Amino acid sequence: MWLLDSAQVNRVVNPAYLIAVMIFGIAMLLFAWEIGNKNAVRLYLVSIPIWLFIEGGSLLAGIRVYDGPVAFVLFVVAFMEDPAWVCFAYLGAERFYKWRWGDDEKKHT
Amino acid sequence: MMPWACPTNIKPRFGTDPDMALDWLLDEIVIRREIFNIYYFLIFLLSIISLLLARKVGLWRFSLGLYLISAAFCTVWETALFLVGSRHYHFFAPAEMLYHGLTEAGPGLIITVILVWKLGLIDLDKWMDPGFGGEK
């Protein structure tokens, strides 16, 4: 059945890319901390165990395969990359809401 | 090899040739996902479910922002990877890339944010839709 045909996706990277991702992740967390956005900081931190579970579980299940230093890649992906984009998207969503609907339009009826 | 183990074929390069000292930075690492076509249908369903959930709990507007920003971020990231030749798809690459970017990040993010909010770890009352204030 074609639905069960392979749709394998590869990403060919290197340690330099992963280090750049680490810098992005740390910068994102520091930025959220610096502007005092507790929700963004907490989301970053909560994302770590969530993505550790998703990535780790996928590795054990064989859905994810890392051809390289597995522990390092897992660390960067679960502790830096995914939490960073979660944090970034949250901050962006706040901006989007303010831009589209404004702070003062909030109505509790 | 167990996932927490490091491959044994990586050799230390420091202290050999100074010109090669930083070569390890460009060692190839492949991150592969073994999925099937049905994954794309499931991710589409998850998108619908996440948006319905957002509507139900009164975070429709905010979730639209989460979806749009994460989709834009993911699409830009994926496009950059694809254009430099780092991302390899299976069949029709541009379509897969676009679908991947537009659908993968948003649903998971919305569900995660709602879950974390319901657990009381973050406060989203300020961002609730009109008419839903104070409900949790």
Mind explaining what this structure looks like?
The complex is a heterodimer of chains A (109) and B (136). Chain A has 109 residues and is mainly α. Chain A has helices spanning 15-34, 38-61, 70-101; strands spanning 9-13, 64-67. Chain A starts with 8 loop residues before the first strand and ends in an 8-residue tail after the last helix. Chain B is built from 4 helices and 2 strands. Chain B has helices at 38-57, 60-83, 93-103, 105-118; strands at 29-33, 87-88. In chain B, helix 2 (60-83) crosses helix 4. Chain B is elongated, with a radius of gyration of 21 Å. Chain B starts with 28 loop residues before the first strand and ends in an 18-residue tail after the last helix. The mean pLDDT of chain B is 84. Chains A and B meet through strand 1, helix 1, helix 2, strand 2 and helix 3 of A and strand 1, helix 1, helix 2, strand 2 and helix 4 of B.
Blueprint (SSEs and pairs):
The complex is a heterodimer of chains A (109) and B (136).
Chain A: E1 9-13, H1 15-34, H2 38-61, E2 64-67, H3 70-101
Helix pairs in contact in A: 1-3, 2-3
Chain B: E1 29-33, H1 38-57, H2 60-83, E2 87-88, H3 93-103, H4 105-118
Helix content of chain A: 55-70%
Q: What count of helical segments of chain B does DSSP give?
A: 4
**Broad structural category of chain A:** mainly alpha
What would you call the shape of chain A? globular
How confident is the prediction overall: mean pLDDT of chain A?
91
C-alpha Rg of chain A, in Å? 18 Å
Major β-sheet annotation of chain B: none
**Greatest interface and its participating residue counts:** A-B, 61 and 63 residues
Low-confidence stretches of chain A: none
- What's the count of strands of chain B? 2
Task: Please give the alpha-carbon distance between the first and last residues of chain A.
Answer: 52 Å
SSE topology string of chain A: EHHEH
